[in-house]
Design goal:
The complex is a heterodimer. Chain A is of the alpha+beta class. Chain A contains 14 helices and 11 strands. Chain A has 2 domains: 2-47 and 272-408, no CATH class; 64-254, no CATH class. Chain A is elongated and about 105 Å long. The longest helix of chain B is centred in the C-terminal third of the chain and has 18 residues, at 179-196. In chain B, 50% of the residues are buried. Classes of the chains: A alpha+beta, B alpha/beta.
Chain lengths: 409, 244
């Protein structure tokens, strides 16, 4: 019987194909918008969520943004400022320096700009997210050849360069230090498409060279260390390491702070707090309510048109809950199927066609649609469809046969 | 009546409230219908005939009084009990056919059977039998929009009899048909009543339709004003009364 009822639902939906199609398209568009918004919120939630194990701690300059610490801090910070035998030493660490510039100083364009993360090549696999499977050969090349760099696929395309090619960068943040690089490899497609990394020794050697040749230190010489990442096993170890660093007398000019990566990112995101709040609590609910209203409108019209048919079914012995299920089922079918279709399309188009959603917030240039969206779509579509169709379904359920036929007569 | 009546209506009242006003539709109506009788209810608009039909068919409940169909006190059943009872015991024929336009003739007739516990094969057999009885075996997969008014009403009749109900109620079954189709439908109803020994209660304004019934009741202002001619005993062939 339920199969027959299901077939009846399908036939009812096919009755006004244009109306059903328009409702489905509207639902798909709205699900698309919600998935985009939720993808951004989801990513921000993930990166700002405190982990209990394998924590990443970030050490930065305490009172200034952007953080610019002397490179002399690097060694001791990498050991968590451990000075006593029972002090905790982080499991791993990584220093971050930023070097950026243009390939054409006379005509600076977005395409010929490039920014490098300067770091120890071997840390790429152990400290960077999603790079644990990076070809070790690339790291070996970077270590052997200090000029060697790895560039993201899209950035490489924008620069119109290939692996093996060399290019010179006129620096924008290290004025007077122009460096020649050799591309030794590319990052796997994904989150590092626009990134580039260089060997930190190359930058530091260039700064020393600057001093040797000119007799004066580069203005940035004591401000090259932007941040240090420390990997600690758990929150207890983090608390100890943070205390070791914050109470150490080694870091006074400038002072430093140590916080979890999640907390650090949260601080960055503070500037976007209102925007994120609006996306979460205004935009998303507004779209969801609109979806429910679209479905409510369609199903209401459909029920109003079919009151006599529904009354006939009741006359034939169909119980009120049969009619409720019939109407809710129709809404569920439209909402669930169009939600699923929209989610699948959004996932594929955004991730595989566009390579991510370009919506720069803080230092996140783009966002990928998470795999979880594949169930968000149908659930959102179905839930809003049910919410929107409850009232019309109840009308169908409560249809009074004698009144309907009195009107017909 | 000489035998236990199938439908028994005792001192039934029905009133509706509109605003603060009470509108009395049926005023203490008492009636008995023996099994296998073809009964026509006539009367002016607002006389209460459709209300009486709805009460007997379990679509509505009386404000006072009792209605029995067989051993079941219909007036005492709850909404869900009534729905279950209707599925098995009442076949409905409507003036405007009220077929579901998205379903074929076969599916429309099958609709009430879906509520009953029976195999697909048994269901199919019953649907085909019903459609065969009304002469539409060759229109199984036609949708209502592809059928004439008379054919649609035949599908409606097949749907009414497919569950082999205790009574068949018809509300102006020929009201939307031309004279030729109306005659065909009435012929069919008489034939079915005779062949299947069904109790049929029909509301009509049409004197020609009423003439085909074995018994005609006239209602006015919620009261039975005329009952006649006398019901024909079940043993007497229907054609004696129904053929002009």
């Amino acid at each position: 019987m339920f199969f027959k009822l299901f077939l009846l639902m399908l036939k009812n939906l096919r009755r006004h194909l244009l109306r059903t199609s328009l409702t489905a398209v509207a639902t798909m568009v709205l699900v698309f918008v919600v998935i985009l918004v939720w993808s951004i919120l989801y990513f921000l939630d993930v990166v700002t969520q405190e982990r209990a194990k394998d924590l990443k701690a970030i050490v930065t300059e305490r009172w200034q943004i952007p953080s610019q610490m002397p490179f002399s801090y690097a060694d001791s910070l990498s050991r968590g400022a451990a000075s006593k035998p029972d002090d905790i030493v982080p499991d791993d660490s990584m220093t971050w320096q930023f070097y950026g510039g243009t390939l054409d100083p006379n005509k600076r364009t977005r395409e010929n700009l490039i920014f490098f993360f300067a770091m120890e090549p071997k840390k790429l696999r152990t400290m960077m997210d999603d790079l644990d499977t990076l070809d070790p050969e690339l790291i070996r090349k970077m270590e052997q050849n200090k000029r060697g760099v790895i560039v993201g696929q899209e950035r490489l395309k924008a620069l119109n360069k290939r692996v093996g090619e060399r290019f010179t960068v006129s620096s924008l943040n290290y004025k007077g230090i122009d460096l020649e690089f050799e591309i030794v490899g590319v990052f796997p497609q994904g989150r590092y498409d626009q990134s580039a990394v260089m060997n930190r020794d190359y930058l530091n050697d260039a700064l020393d060279d600057y001093y040797r040749k000119r007799g004066v230190r580069h203005p940035m010489h004591d401000r090259t260390l932007n941040l240090v990442w420390l990997k600690v096993p758990d929150s207890r170890a983090f608390a100890r390491v943070a205390e070791q660093i914050m109470t150490s007398g080694l870091y006074t000019q400038p002072a430093v702070k140590c916080e979890t990566a999640a907390s650090g990112i949260s601080t960055w995101l503070d500037a976007y707090r209102d925007l994120i709040w609006g996306m979460r609590w205004l935009l998303s609910p507004a779209v969801l309510v609109t979806m429910a209203l679209v479905v409510a409108n369609t199903i209401s019209i459909s029920v109003r048109e079919r009151l006599t048919e529904l009354a006939v079914m009741k006359v034939l012995g169909y119980r009120p809950w049969h009619l409720l299920v019939l109407v809710l089922g129709e809404a569920l079918l439209v909402g669930g199927l169009s939600g699923a279709a929209s989610a699948g399309l959004t996932f594929w188009v955004i991730n595989h066609v566009f390579g991510g959603l370009k919506f720069p917030i803080a230092f996140f240039p783009e966002f990928l649609v998470p795999r979880a969206s594949l169930w968000w779509g149908p659930v959102l579509g179905a839930a809003t469809a049910v919410a929107g169709s409850i009232l019309p379904a109840w009308t169908a359920r409560a249809v009074r046969v004698s009144e309907v036929f009195a009107k017909v007569a | 009546m000489g035998q236990q009546a199938l439908v028994r209506v005792y001192d039934v009242h029905k009133y509706f409230r509109r605003g603060g006003e009470q509108i009395d539709v049926l005023n203490g109506l008492t009636l008995e219908v023996p099994p296998g009788q073809f009964l026509a209810l006539m009367g002016p608009s607002g006389s209460g005939k459709t209300t009486l039909l709805n009460l007997i068919a379990g679509l509505d409940k009386p404000s006072a009084g009792e209605i029995w169909v067989g051993d079941v006190k219909v007036s005492a059943l709850s909404e869900s009990q009534l729905a279950r009872w209707r599925t098995r015991n009442v076949g409905f024929i409507f003036q405007f056919y009220h077929l579901l336009p998205v379903l074929t003739a076969y599916e429309n007739v099958e609709l009430p059977l879906l509520l009953l516990p029976m195999s697909a094969a048994e269901r199919r057999r019953q649907v085909l039998t019903a459609l065969d009885l009304v002469g539409l075996s060759d229109r199984l997969y036609y949708r209502p929009g592809q059928l004439s008014g008379g054919q649609q009403q035949r599908v409606g009749i097949a749907r009414a009899i497919v569950t082999d109900p205790t009574i068949v109620v018809a509300d102006e079954p020929t009201g939307d048909l031309d004279a030729k189709s109306a005659k065909e439908i009435l012929d069919l109803m008489v034939e079915l009543q005779r062949a299947l020994d069904k109790t049929i209660i029909m509301v009509t304004h049409d004197i020609r339709a009423a003439e085909r019934a074995q018994r005609v009741l006239h209602l006015d202002k919620g009261r039975l004003v005329e009952d006649g001619p006398m019901p024909v005993p079940r043993s007497v062939p229907v054609t004696d009364r129904s053929t002009p």
